[in-house]
Amino acid sequence: MMYLLQVTLCWGTFYLLYVLLLSRETFFHINRWYLLATLALGIAIPMVDWHTLFFSNNHPIVIPLDQFHYSIQSITATPEVITAETTWQEVLWLIYQAGTLLFTLRFSYGLWQIWQVYRRSEVVQHGKYKIVYTDSEHLPYSFFNCLFWSKQFDTNYTEQQQILRHEEAHINGWHTVDVLFMEILGILFWCSPMIYLYRASMRNVHEYLADAWVLQTTTKKAYGRLLLSQSLSGFQIALANHFIHSQLKKRIIMMTRNHSPKRAMMKYLWMLPIVVLAVLIFSKRDQFPTNKNVATASLSAEADYEQATQELLNTHDPIHKVVEEMPRFPGCEDKEDGEVRQECANQKLLQFIYSNIKYPQAARDAGIQGTSVVSFVVEKDGSITELKMLRSPGEGAFDEEVLRVTGAMPKWIPGKHEGEIVRVEFKLPVKFKLEDDGDATPTNATPPNANDIFKVVDEMPRFPGCEELAGEARKECSQTKLLEFIYSNIKYPESGRDAGIEGISVVGFVVEKDGTISSSEIKRSIGSDFDETILEVVAQMPKWIAGKQAGENVRVQFHLPVKFKLADDAESKTEMKEKDLVGADAPIMFANAMNERLVVQDLKISPNPSSGIFDMSFTAAAGPTKVQVLTVEGRTVFSWYASDFDGQDDIVINLQYPPSGTYYVRIMQGDKVHIEPIIVQK
Predict the structure, then answer these.
(1) pTM over 0.70, yes/no
(2) What is the CATH topology of the domain spanning 449-592?
(3) How confident is the model over 181-193, as pLDDT tens digits?
(4) CA 18 to chain centre
């Protein structure tokens, strides 16, 4: 929205110059190009990085990257909180999207109208252009190299030649290109009032040019009478150049005006300072060095230059919260695999904190425990700056100890984004807990005891079957495998179905060090039959991939909510939701309590990830088929149904500007279901 405002202000500045100094001049060709050029400049000035174009060889300024509104996960995998609140920015964005759609439909309808008239009419080649003789009643108009002339339009030969010459000027001048350009800008910038003023002025200039062309072969008096006689508007179509426009008075005034003297062209030089002013005002301000920085960066001495460079890097570069390659604690550079290297760095960091931090004596004596959270910035050279406490158990000694140890850390491996080293904010929780030896315990740093059951671990346990993958891909694959298992085994209890019982049951179990499932128990119940059904499914689970803490396999508590809901058609459904082991909800996975899984072959969904539009093809048994896309909350955002599905089809899935995240494609044929995850990534 800020960009739209900047474009509007740029256009307003240029248009003010046009109205005050240029619009009354008879340099119609120059005015046409002035309007087109300033439209383009208004779009480009707030967008283009002018510093890179003009200053990159003189000053060591790094262009700030766009800010992404996500939160960094520290080594403790602190959960991200997602709210459902709708901000005013989102409301404005929805209004903008609705307006864009409306004006796109208007534009498409105008093109469709012209095409319908063209295909139903008699087309005759007339020199370099075509005359389209139509049956409907309207005034003459042109579109590209076609001149539309109504068979019902009655005029004498002299007036006919004047009108033809007028429309030829539109055709030969390619005025339709200008009109289409204005229409496209009208779609993208419909909320800017300046686009409508520009469009009206461009229409006027087109008419001035066409009128001037006609006046080369006829008198002003005769042509003026023609304009007045035809001033009653007939049928008109959007996007076309019409012979008569409503601003007839301006055209007649411009026809009778004397030609502007050549010295009046000097007025166009006012455009140059306005362009410079617009660049200074509306360009990205944080990309330009201040006078102090310019002076500092130009010091000739090498030491001063290095100092100036560091000052610029640390002062003017943005601090990122999400980057492609996170900063790492040093000591694991020999690891080639990125995930292994990151896990190793996490362990090195934990070992450093565990080896250096001390429990404050005053807090020990008072029996105070709790979690401190410190944030800091990992600079481009790996140094740690801007340390500050975000949370404290309430004892100042805790803060002092955390800041002391954090400040003593060695230089990190800096973060990278889009191939460039960048500054990154990092948040580190440290949990102080009184143990028998009285030492401070950083979160997740204590070596696990043999029988401890963890709720938060470095590496969460996973359903098996995806060990060949890594990172998020492995996590999503594991969730899908768990979903498939639930599909194949869970059934809606007959007693619950007959009684119409719905609700959410929660089962808890422990994933042991060897991956086996133990200690299964119902944490929330909606009925004994439901409890038995869930416990039976859990008991049938294969061995999981065990969770890890401090590099060792550990026992991990896992909670699995299962929502039972009766569908409208009395077909039993369940919805399964997995909790990750750091307190944040993992994607909800949906299942129908069916006995058989749909066999789908040659399934292709591309691109995946996508911004919201996917091409999907698959082969399955012929018969009525439904395809849905579900959010992690279970909301349907796309639906497709074919009663005559012949066994193979190609579908375009358009989610209409969805937020980033994981979605699920559900293919259904009767009692058979297939699920496939897709990723939306902006």
Answers:
(1) no
(2) TolA/TonB C-terminal domain (3.30.2420)
(3) 999 999 999 999 9
(4) 37
